[in-house]
Design goal:
Blueprint (H helix, E strand, L loop, with lengths): L3 E5 L22 H9 L6 H15 L3 E9 L2 E7 L6 E6 L11 H4 L8 H10 L3 E6 L6 E9 L5 E9 L6 E6 L2 E5 L3 E3 L2 E3 L14 E2 L5 H14 L6 H8 E2 L3 H11 L12 H20 L3 E5 L5 E4 L8 E5 L1 H9 L2 H36 L3 H13 L10 E6 L6 E6 L6 H43 L5 H13 L13 H6 L5 E5 L2 E5 L3 H11 L5 E5 L7 E3 L8 H13 L9 E7 L3 E3 L8 E3 L3 E5 L4
Parallel strand pairs: 12-13
Antiparallel strand pairs: 1-4, 2-3, 3-4, 5-6, 6-7, 7-8, 8-9, 10-11, 14-15, 14-16, 17-18, 19-20, 20-22, 21-22, 21-23, 23-26, 24-25
Helix pairs in contact: 1-10, 5-8, 7-8, 10-12, 11-12
Length: about 625
Amino acid sequence: MIFIVLSYFIHFTIPSLFSPLMKTHVILFTYDYFQKVSENFMQLDSTSLYLLAKDLKNSLLSSQVRQIHQINHRMFDFELFRPDAAPAHLVMNTSSPAYVYTLNKNIYKSQYIPSQTFCMTLRKHLEGSRLSDVMQPDLDRILIFSFDRIEAGGRIVTKKLYLELLPASPNLILTENGKIIDACLKGTRGNRHVAVGEDYVFPNYSNRLNFLLFSREELLEQLEYACRDSEENEIVEQYIFSSYNGFSRYLVDELCLRCGLSPADSLKSLTEIQRSRIADEIFHLGQEIQDSQMIYIYQTNAKSEFISPIILTGQEKKKEDTILQWLESELQNPQKVISAELKDYEKMIHRCIKKEIRKKQKIQDELKETEYMEKYKLWGNLLAIYSYEKIKGKKEITVSNLFADPPEDETIPVDPLKSIIINSQNYFKKYNKMKTRLVYSKEKEKECDTRIQYLNNLTYFMSRVTSLQEINELKQELKSVGIEKQKSSGKKSNHDKQSRQISIKFKDVDGFRVYIGENNIQNEYLTLHKAQKDDIWLHAKGYPGSHVVIDAQHHPVPMDILEKAAVIAAANSQGRTAGKVEVDYTLVKYVKKVPGTPPGFVTFSHQKTLVVTPES
């Protein structure tokens, strides 16, 4: 699915021209920020898009296209000049889905990429034109932007830009007189071919009706016809979804609630009164949608949100807003970015864990062969002892095992084309190969275990991320261990410099500072760089979690302080939901970094253990 977002630039010379709807707030987020927001953004249904189309038409009509820029291969920025209001940027994105929002073009010029073919086509045909109409055909997830421009000879030429907001195949298509000039995505899908010079046709599943255009009588006539010709197992919601555009799951539920029906009721069994009631309520819903100026935000039981252009019966309304203001507030919500970023990293780390598990399984399969290592050595020795024996085309030879007490017969597979001596040497080669493999595979298996443990630690710390700063620290850690690729750059950015300035959270416990690492980078910095040798180091036993350090200030630490710090260590570990947690503690000087391991991996000695109950 694709979305469009309108953004406004501050125009200091005509502040009085701002309408309350277009109130501007200064934020300092990049296109990348809003692209991340979009990945975690809810989809707009057709009726919500209907309100957005109305607002865009009211605010953008007669705007002139100054410039068109390309943000990435599927995102385009239309810079619009409006004669009676502040300049605006209309950003169209054919990703699935994406929102982009900006306020200062001087800052974000660097976000543009060199224009590709489709962007150059848009510039050639649309720059200098005026936006003359914004339409939503048949209440479908398609917006049509009409642009007029005076061409050679003084004639006015209209070109249409189709923004297809379909979840399965989003696209942006430029046409003139029904012919495709160019498209962001070309090709064949179903019976529809998108190519230069072809006639533009709507997607083949855009044949449902716009219920806003019909009267009560027409809606009733359509329903009665459907009831006569329906199958026995066809139900009410199936008829609504297949016949009309604009009905979301929540809108169908609202319709059935108003009619006193269930969405699963049989269509054929509807009485005349029920059919009349359905037609009336569909008509009333259409009137409410057309009259609506606001969207209503509701919250489901799963604490996720959805929006509706009308007030829904039986749903707990969270708030209401205009569609543009809602988009603005959603796009400026950093929690959306955090959630989207974390989803990406969770997938990335999950793939890494699966990769390490497969690698470990392969190593274990190879180690199974080493079970025959001693047998190969025995066979090599016995064949060397009985080297005078003749094979004579045999595939195995039986000799007396002189190494057994008492001696017993041993049957040894041999290569009939080679001598006893060569067969003996081959078994010794296999033995040496297995011996080397055993040592090497054990090391590799240990590395896999360490890597899996580290990735599990990352998963735990990701579950506790609550701020953009923590996201940036996580990103730096992933880059440092090679999980996320480091972008090469000739210059070191201020962000990179700031990322090296690690700050550690601490709590004051009866006059002692207790420091808490909140990720693997902080853990390593706290334990190996910040802490003094005679400070006390604590960690939950057997659980991923924070390194906790008591700043002893060269004084003995009382047992009650140790117990309170142990509670903090348990609460900042994966065992925080357990009833009892064992917490190891020792002096920092006994904590050592394991060479060649990821951040935060240490060994320690001289430890003692406390059993505590975690507290939040």
